[in-house]
Amino acid sequence: xPDPIHQFExxxxxxxDFFGVDATFTNSALFMVAGVxxxxxxxxxASRGRSLVPSRLQSVxxxxxxxxxxxxxxSMGEQGMKFFPLIFTFFLFILTLNMLGMVPGFFTVTSxxxxxxxxxxxxxxTVIVIGFAKNGLGFLKLFVPDGxxxxxxxxxxxxxxxxxxxxxxxxxxxLFANMLAGHITLKVFAGFIIMLLGAGGAASAIAPLPLLAVxxxxxxxxxxxxxxxxxxxxxxxxxxxxxxxPGH
Amino acid sequence: MxxxxxxxxxxxxxxxxxxxxxxxxxxxxxxxxxxxxxxxxALYFLLKKLAIPRIGGVIEERQNRIQRDIDAAxxxxxxxxxxxxxxxxALTDARGNATSIARETRDRLTSEVDRERAAVEAAxxxxxxxxxxxxxxxxxxxxxSVDEIAADIxxxxxxxxxGKDVGADEIKRxxxxxxxx
Lengths: 248, 181
Fold this sequence. Notes:
The complex is a heterodimer. By secondary structure, chain A is mainly α. Chain A has helices at about 25-45, 55-75, 85-100, 115-135, 155-165, 165-200, 200-205, 210-245; strands at about 10-15, 15-20, 20, 25. In chain A, the strands form two sheets. A two-stranded antiparallel sheet of chain A has the order 1-4. Chain A has a two-stranded antiparallel ribbon with strand order 2-3. The longest helix of chain A is centred in the last third of the chain and has 37 residues, at about 210-245. Chain B has one domain. The longest helix of chain B is centred in the middle third of the chain and has 134 residues, at about 30-160.
């Protein structure tokens, strides 16, 4: 049976050293670069006409833009729009890498825990920095919800603090685990087909069953690829909203 | 998040010596994060400086255009409303004019008729006065003729009664004296 984990191996393509830091160009880096070029290139190509009546591709680019802009406005209000470039970058980056991963044989960058963790920690630190920069110590109101009786307040505050500090964990694991599990499942079911066919006889006859399953899971994985990009971005918006308006 | 990896390694792995679960391989942290930083920052600036202004600009321009068109439509509607009002006002004015012209005409005709009637009445009353004067004159003449007739008759009457021939002048004097009383 083919190894379902093999696809997540980071292969060193061009050894690079950046002042003692290992900056080797790996297949992961290759797909990050490809994702950036692809997403940016598609956006620019789609909007090249700048037409008032958009072409099909241009309206795709515009609906992506409007989709993320709506998300930002809904969660943070009009003043959140200054984070729009950042949020748009998150969404586009993750969406493109998730989708690229759906191409057979391609590497899925978002199934690397270090990558999703770095993104989540970046969001976490951004929230803390902006939260204190905007509100000073008022940012700590985040841990003191309004209208809670004083005798349960310590408990509630403790829970709030724990939930705040576990954010980067859940934020990164959600994306990582979804992508990882989906790709493993796909690979395992695809492996069944080959195993059944190899076994011959009656076993070969039921080989179409895992094929159907792979078909269904593939469709589901496309949904998950989009959904996880959306969820990651949405949570980023909500966390940033806490930094802007710490009072609940 | 750097807790020792529990999962994965029990998956049988053919050949390669790598016993670490690949997605969590700590040796890939540095190369992946360096390139993550490079690509993410690059995408951020590419989007912020080029793609977002371009797409946002198109969307904004379209909204402005739609707003302009709506404004123009509203202006035209106002124009139409204004024209409609002007038309109605003109209509009302014309109707008012027609009424006043009719009234003036009627008034003029009435006054002309009045004037003519007054003239006719004046002429009639003048003729009446003339006729009355003529009647008066005739009456006066007739009355003076009565004096003469009286004088004419008085002579023979006095002669018959008294047998005296009285002069015409004397009779006239006597008669006028009698009439004067």
